[in-house]
Design the sequence.
């Protein structure tokens, strides 16, 4: 449609601009409360000292997430979508004006909590990180395929709660193999740090 | 917009039709994996023997949820939205043709897992049940206000996991008081049955 086409043209501009500045960008998506902000809160302080990050936060309302991120010391700006269920390239381009991009090597964009709509809107990102918490159940890839199809990595968060759920990792990985065999899958816990050494290596290994 | 207006007209038809047949209908909404289907699986067998229910299941893909519900013995039909992020009145009217509405006193409609988009589309329901799992965090009402504003009841599910989270019930109820003081709030667990006697009474007390 025309809306999508206009979005993709703008996304392409953003992509080329970030590439010129050698900034890698990650569009972080997942259900409400899957742990996107918690993951960033733990990940950012673990980055090597010479790797500077900035964060664009997207929510319908409140600046709670941007405020949480700001406590880690990095640049953080909040987009409020006023009811829109996904970030789009126009919103991101406006937010980028509020960030000093010199010295930045990673841009994280936390999308609105939504396992469907954000999948359709490129933000000009290098790639997509999908956060799927084990408390949501292991059938999410087949029930929400468009979200998982384009993931570079799926972070299986809240792994600390696994023993209290009926989550079967082999079920999840089998479903992912069908729709997106290239995606990495990482079991992590933002609350106890499990899996974060591997996650930091994954992120740092993909710097430009 | 025109789309919303057309939807609301169709929803009104559904509403009047169900009212004539003395069928109460509940639009069940919540994030992916918040426990909507699990709640129905436990609730339906607990209904009094003379209270017949039917269920319309909405998902992007798969018939997994309708199959789970069918095991309880009630009529259950699956809508696959083919990518649409919410059910609308047109989809529900088509699904209603697959259900024998005689003898039914309750229609449950499980909406697509999404804490944003379904709020904008009336299905002709009597009212809305919002499922918010405590694992998602206690800031969801303020971050996703359109969903919580129109709830008749909020089911705080997965209360069995409360001790392993930082969920503060008073935070949640205080936020709900600001945006929707009329809504009932019930703490429940679909896995261990906690709160279900009260939930059954709430549902049965609202039969037509
Ligand atoms: N047990 C456990 N809880 C977690 C973990 N990660 C996050 N949480 C909790 O999950 C809830 C939601 O975390 P957030 O980081 O706010 O989730 P989010 O995905 O950013 O939420 P939205 O931005 O609103 O979509 C909070 O109560 C966190 O403490 C984890 O690994 N284990
Ligand atoms: N610990 C715990 N887990 C629960 C509870 N209710 C549901 N679950 C688990 O949560 C996961 C998702 O449950 P579902 O009932 O499929 O959730 P849903 O909201 O219907 O999911 P979608 O239809 O995909 O949006 C499953 O692994 C359930 O076993 C509960 O009260 N406590
Ligand atoms: Mg967040
Ligand atoms: Mg379900
Ligand atoms: Zn949308
Ligand atoms: Zn939508």
Sequence:
């Amino acid at each position: 449609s025309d809306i999508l086409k206009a979005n993709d043209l703008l996304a392409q501009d953003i992509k080329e601009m970030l590439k010129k500045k050698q900034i890698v960008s990650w569009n972080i998506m997942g259900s409400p409360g899957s742990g996107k902000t918690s993951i960033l809160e733990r990940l950012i302080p673990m980055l090597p000292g010479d790797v500077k990050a900035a964060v664009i936060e997207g929510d319908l309302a409140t600046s709670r997430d941007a405020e949480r991120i700001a406590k880690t010391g990095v640049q953080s700006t909040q987009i409020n979508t006023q009811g829109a269920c996904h970030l789009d390239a126009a919103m991101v381009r406006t937010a980028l004006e509020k960030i000093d991009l010199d010295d930045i090597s990673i841009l994280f964009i936390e999308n609105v909590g939504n396992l469907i709509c954000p999948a359709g809107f490129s933000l000009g990102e290098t790639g997509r990180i999908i956060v799927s918490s084990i408390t949501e159940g292991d059938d999410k890839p087949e029930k929400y395929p468009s979200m998982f199809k384009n993931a570079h990595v799926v972070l299986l968060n809240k792994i600390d709660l696994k023993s209290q759920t009926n989550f079967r990792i082999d079920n999840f990985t089998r479903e992912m193999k069908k729709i997106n065999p290239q995606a990495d899958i990482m079991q992590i816990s933002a609350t106890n740090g499990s899996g974060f050494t591997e996650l930091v290596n994954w992120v740092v290994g993909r710097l430009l």
User: Anything to note?
Assistant: Residues A 85-86, 117; B 85, 117 surround zinc ion (ligand 5) (CB under 6 Å). Residues 20 and 179 of chain B are 32 Å apart (CA to CA). Chain B has one domain: 2-204. The longest strand of chain B covers residues 52-59.
